[in-house]
Amino acid sequence: MTTRDELSLLRSMGQIDRRGLIKGAAALGAVGAAERMFGGSAFAATPKKGGALKVAIGAGSTSDTFDPATFTDSYMQFVGFGCMRNCLTEIDNSGKLVGELAESWNATPDAKTWTFKIRKGVTFHNGKALTTEDVIDSINHHRGPDSKSPAKPLLAPITTLKADGDSVVMTLESGNADLPYLLSDYHIAIMPSKGDGTVDWQSGTGTGGYVVKKFEPGVRAYLERNPSYWKSGRAHFDSIEVLSIVDVAARTNALTTGEIHLMDRCDLKTVHLLQRNKKVNIFEVTGSQHYTFPMITTQAPFDNNDVRMALKLAVDREEMVKKVLRGHGMVGNDTPIAPSTSFYVELEQRAYDPEKAKFHLKKGGAEGLTIDLSAADAAFAGAVDAAVLYKEHAAKAGITINVVREPNDGYWSNVWMKKPWGACYWGGRPTADWMFSTAYEAGVAWNDTFWDNKKFNQLLVAARVELDEAKRTELYKDMQLIVRDEGGVVVPMFANYVGASSDDLTHDKMAGNWDLDGMKASERWWFA
Amino acid sequence: MGPILKMVAQRLALGLLTLFIVSLIIFLSVEMLPGDITEAILGQGATPETVAAFRRELGLDVPAHLRYLAWLGDIAQGDLGRSLASKRDIAELIGGRLMNTLFLASFAAIIAVPLAVTLGLLAALYRNSWFDRGINLVTLSSISFPEFFIAYALIFLFAVQWDWFPSIVNVNSDTPFWERVYRCILPAVTLTMVTTAHMMRMTRAAIINLMASPYIEMASLKGLTRSRIIVRHALPNALSPIINVIAINLAYLVVGVVLVEVVFVYPGLGQLMIDSVSKRDIPVVQAACLIFAVTYILLNLLADILSILSNPRLLHPR
């Protein structure tokens, strides 16, 4: 009997309460499973209004601003996306796409022209009513030659953007069935227009559940509930104070001493000790966040698929999850598509097989392979340890890996996509197309393997305009197979989001698209 | 007072030169670090196109020496400029942080300086006694531990175990004064523990050094008590080295406390400086460094003036 079955059985026999179950499951590294088992119903309770929530986020910097085009880390995601503003669409806690500031939408059959009906009766914090002009200018904020926004490539296919009554019509240069998903991205928040084609991001006014009252970048943000918030049954706290506490020990101390109620990113090395504290609940969600080792496939020896295959076979994923993630994650299968992503297909799990790796090396004429693997903890926490583990695993397949420890500072500009093989992380994307067209389609800016597979590229374009779900699933399955077997990336593991809260905080089922309940704990959680 | 004023003027002029050199070194070293602010801010999200657009926006496409000269021109007029990252006025950005740093430094100094000098005097008075040894042992141990260790030990005892003080400072401009004092106690005690030994040992050594002088022997032959000899006769002559060591420690309390800031989540200048270096926000780094340099220069100047005043012989060098 597996751990999960055992726990389910105990629960059905009434021998274990929910908390005990979560504890038991967490002790065995299976909280994700426990969370999934309950679905929504076990958590469901009527939300209560009130209370002053204090949150500590392990990110944030003095250079933060309200401009969503510069949001990079979870601090501004939580404040900007989670509290202050809304997008056109939202991914709800079950991973489903729902309308946010767009009430409804429809597309022409070629998925080229999209019409989004803008919600009526929504006002910004400053009292201004939401109009189509605000939506258009907010989207244009990320387009155009002067845009420095990471959302620029997402919106690049839009050729025209215009208002039609109370709707906004977007025309794309080629069809994309996932456009409504893309518009839920935290960068593409809707802000009030200044009337001259630009938006007012400076004041921080939005349509979100909380109005920003004080903001000291890199220190704290203080927000109060928006009394006229348009969503009903959301945003329950009277006020939220969001602190930036980068040091994980300080964050944990703040929680255990009652200075804060909620923190993200627990220290995986000590989370089992934190678990003993009765006033603290640990929450854990398997999301789409994954750690990768991308190889530049245009350079020798990585232009040889046998070499790539040998390296994919020469890593013991189970051990990596156990040692690097301390069990708080799941093994990867060399595709970036997580179970929570749309069109995920369960493929046969690739296992550690040094003999088969040797076979591929021989076949590719690369016996006695010696290569450098660049890593720094900037890529992901524990990247250097993971690289050293990889070296040990690969040695059994006759591959010599030299682990090159790179500086954390400047890792993304000097190592990633520059050194032939390195470590990297991806937050994941809610849809398969989004993930693939961000980092796997030939020629896109973040294709960190410089991979160019004709068949894959064709399938990707075909699937993008396919509105028939069954056919689309089949296409994405083929793509996942191609990435797994011919792609340039080793995906050894998916990392859970592990956070902690005080025991007076309650919530429904948690979303897995981002940390902290899809970064919406601010409006989805409440004090019991 | 003539010679003192002349010395102050000379030292201030030298100080300005030092500031200029410091700013040049800082500018060059940040410039030499790999990557620039656009890449640091955009991180994994950087594409050649967005980086170029960002650089144009910030004026980073201008050659480095021209940017430095422009900055120097502004600073000469008292304008610290704007942060590249947040476009906020640097004077305003740094102002609050500087007040926080100075508050914590003063708080720690108010505890540490009298404590260290008193302990030093007592140690000299009861030289080689169990008291002397005990004080040495305690202060030297506390200075030998890294300050973050002391900070975590204090948090463990006073915040986690006994719940007397908060584990994070979390103050802002609206926090009332006494609340601020209360929330700052643990960091102030940490800083006291890491600075006391240095000042205490110097006080003790300076006094003991003088105790062998003939005039002290004369005083004791007159039948004065040992404590009166130390406080009235030895201490005034030992002030000069003590003042210097206090000045160095005060400067340290302003510029060197970043670890304590991180552990107690205290919004001081050190944290701002680290953020700015890692984001390559040169104007903010420059401004913070200038403040640190000014702190050192002024405190050293003050120490020299006080030493001279305490020892008139220094006023008339041969």
Characterise the protein shown here:
The complex is a heterodimer of chains A (528) and B (318). By secondary structure, chain A is α+β, with helices and mostly antiparallel strands. Helices cover 30% and strands 21% of the residues of chain A. Chain A is built from 19 helices and 19 strands. Chain A has helices at 3-12, 18-27, 31-38, 74-84, 132-140, 152-155, 179-182, 248-256, 271-274, 305-313, 317-323, 354-363, 383-395, 411-414, 432-439, 454-465, 469-486, 515-519, 521-524, and strands at residues 52-57, 89-91, 97-99, 102-107, 113-118, 158-164, 167-172, 210-216, 220-225, 239-244, 262-263, 280-294, 329-331, 370-375, 400-405, 424-426, 489-502, 505-506, 526-527. In chain A, helix 1 (3-12) packs antiparallel against helix 2, helix 2 packs antiparallel against helix 3 and helix 16 (454-465) packs antiparallel against helix 17. The longest helix of chain A is centred in the C-terminal third of the chain and has 18 residues, at 469-486. Chains A and B meet through helix 8 and helix 14 of A and helix 2, helix 3, helix 7, helix 12 and helix 13 of B.
Helix share, percent of chain A: 25-40%
End-to-end separation of chain A in angstroms reads 35 Å
Rg of chain A: 23 Å
User: Please, how many domains of chain A?
Assistant: 3
What's the number of helices of chain A? 19
Radius of gyration of chain B: 24 Å
CATH architecture term of the largest domain in chain A:
Roll
As a percent range, the share of strand residues of chain A is: 15-25%
Helical fraction of chain B: over 70%
Please mark out the parts of chain A with pLDDT under 50 across 5 or more consecutive residues, or reply none: 1-42
Shape field of chain B: globular
Given the helix and strand composition of chain A, which structural class is it? alpha+beta
Outline of chain A, from the CA principal axes? globular
Oligomeric status: heterodimer
Number of strands of chain B: 0
